[in-house]
Design goal:
501 residues, alpha/beta, 10-stranded mixed β-sheet, 10 helices, 26 strands, globular, binds alpha-L-arabinofuranose
Length: 501
């Protein structure tokens, strides 16, 4: 039996809503088809945005959306994506499938999408192949409220009022697709470019994201921070609000990756073991950040995370389209619990990617849309957004799986919202056995408000366009409530959410 002890009196810190963020790149069928179909499409839409997709994303309470990339960001020239659509430049999307990008989805469309979803925006600028002037003018175009060349251009294009820009990334993966730079070179460029990301709206300063490491590249983190902090006053904290981190789970490594749906028991545990590696990465990068930023003013933004498998047979390999199973539900549950537990440093994150790409929450085919197992987990976890992490610990569990890919059987995190409602999220990583869970609270007399579960006896289970509801969030009926706690049997392969007041 596993015992989960929760101390409601001990609040550890706030789980920022942005930790539950998403990422949408001009890649494959994410933006085009998945989100944007154009005003003349037969698929129901509002101003070109699919109504089914926007509706599902609103239910998810998406807090922030990152755009336009990814690798695409450092080849994107924003002026190509404004003005009358028929005049917009066409380009080849060299990174992703070599298809024609007609720029029909640009700045105005992205801002419209965020307003329909009701989320904040995270725009990723082009440092790799764009100029300082180009980046600076984009910010002016979006946010300047007055007479200026870019503000006038925005008005000519039909937008009188400036928008608010919430987060701005100064380059993406500049150690790789964003220019193959050294950390010192990038950090100097970062210092220069970010200078011209001006805060025209003093009441709403733009939060700047500096490009951080790939996986365990601690050399990058150290080099970037050393240069960014050199010869500056403390209050500039390296000119950044966030430092990013990208980490994908490839069951069989970067070259082979592995199938999304066809895997054996060993690969199940291998995959989850790799998902758990996120914890070590956060600790490693945080330890370096602590040296420069002991007060933790800079957030770690894990703004690309999730599974990355071999793409679905018969699809364009450059489109990164993959299916999503119960295994992905566990990856999401495990990772989000890790983020919650590290809320002192992890202040933003973005699952890659939102629709039709990698560990997507939604898949579309023509006018059909399905929710993936990952969607349902993110939906159950939405209550953690903006809540306070509570002290909690699980005891009495064994490590399971093959020796090389050992994982703890149960992972958890617990938070309390502003109304005092407690949300507990648990994962059972075993494909062999259920687990009896005994939750004990410090205070007595809690009332059960809700219990939900995402599970399936078959670890390969997934949703398809023919069977869209195979894996979904369901009511979980097995809870026994006592004066001091709640007990239940947690099925194998499951993610559970329990709310008490
Ligand atoms: O999400 C797919 C790609 O992965 C992104 O474009 C890039 O930033 C990362 O390497």
């Amino acid at each position: 039996m596993a015992r989960l002890v929760i101390n409601e009196e001990k609040k550890i810190g706030r789980i920022e809503p942005e930790v539950y963020g998403h990422f949408s790149e001009h890649l494959g069928r994410c933006i085009y088809e998945g989100i944007y179909v154009g005003e003349n499409s037969e698929i129901p839409n509002v101003n070109g945005m699919r109504s089914d997709v926007v509706g599902a994303l609103k239910e998810l309470k998406v807090p922030v959306l990152r755009w336009p990339g990814g690798c695409f960001a450092d080849e994107y020239h924003w002026k190509d994506g404004i003005g009358p659509r028929e005049n917009r430049k066409k380009m080849i999307n060299t990174h992703w499938g070599g298809v024609v990008e007609d720029n029909s989805f640009g700045t105005h469309e992205f801002m419209e999408l965020c307003s329909q979803i009701g989320c904040t925006n995270y725009i990723n600028g082009n440092l790799g192949s764009g100029t300082v002037q180009e980046m600076s003018e984009w910010v002016e175009y979006m946010t300047f409220n007055g007479v200026s060349p870019m503000a006038d251009l925005r008005k000519e294009n039909g937008r009188e009022e400036p928008w608010t820009v919430d987060f701005f990334g100064v380059g993406n993966e500049n150690w790789g697709c964003g220019g193959n730079m050294t950390p010192e070179h990038y950090a100097n460029e970062y210092r220069r470019y970010q200078t011209y990301v001006r805060n025209y709206d003093k009441k709403h300063p733009i939060k700047k994201v500096c490009c951080g490491a790939n996986v365990d590249d601690y050399y990058w983190t150290e080099g970037v921070l050393k240069t960014a902090f050199a010869n500056t006053e403390d209050q500039f904290h390296g000119f950044m609000d966030y430092l990013s981190l990208h980490y994908y789970v490839h069951p069989e490594g970067w070259e082979i990756k592995g199938s999304a749906t066809d895997f054996d028991d060993e690969v199940w545990y291998k995959t989850l073991n790799k998902a758990l590696y996120m914890e070590e990465l956060i600790q490693g990068h945080s330890a370096i950040m602590d040296q420069y930023d002991p007060e933790k003013k800079i957030g770690l933004s894990v703004d690309e995370w999730g599974s990355w498998y071999t793409c679905e047979p018969g699809t364009n390999p450059g489109f990164l389209y993959q299916q999503n199973t119960v295994r992905d539900a566990l990856i999401a549950g495990i990772t989000l619990n890790i983020f919650n537990k590290h809320c002192d440093r992890v202040k933003m994150a973005a699952l890659a990617q939102m629709v039709n790409v990698l560990q997507a929450v939604l898949l579309t085919e023509g006018e059909q849309m399905i929710k993936t197992p990952t969607y349902h987990v993110m939906h159950m976890y939405r209550y953690h957004q903006g809540a306070d992490l509570l002290q909690s610990a699980v005891t009495g569990i064994d490590n399971i799986g093959p020796e090389k890919w050992n994982v703890p059987k149960i992972t958890e995190s617990v938070s309390m919202d502003g109304d005092g409602v407690i949300t507990v999220t648990l994962n059972n990583l075993s494909i062999e056995a259920s687990e009896e869970i005994d939750i004990q609270f410090a205070n007595k007399g809690h009332q059960l408000r809700e219990a939900k579960i995402v599970t399936h006896p078959d670890m390969h289970a997934k949703n398809t366009f023919d069977a869209p509801k195979e894996v979904e969030e369901r009511d979980f009926d097995g809870c026994n409530v006592s004066e001091s706690g709640i007990s239940f049997v947690m099925p194998k392969n499951s993610v559970v959410e329990i709310r008490v007041s």
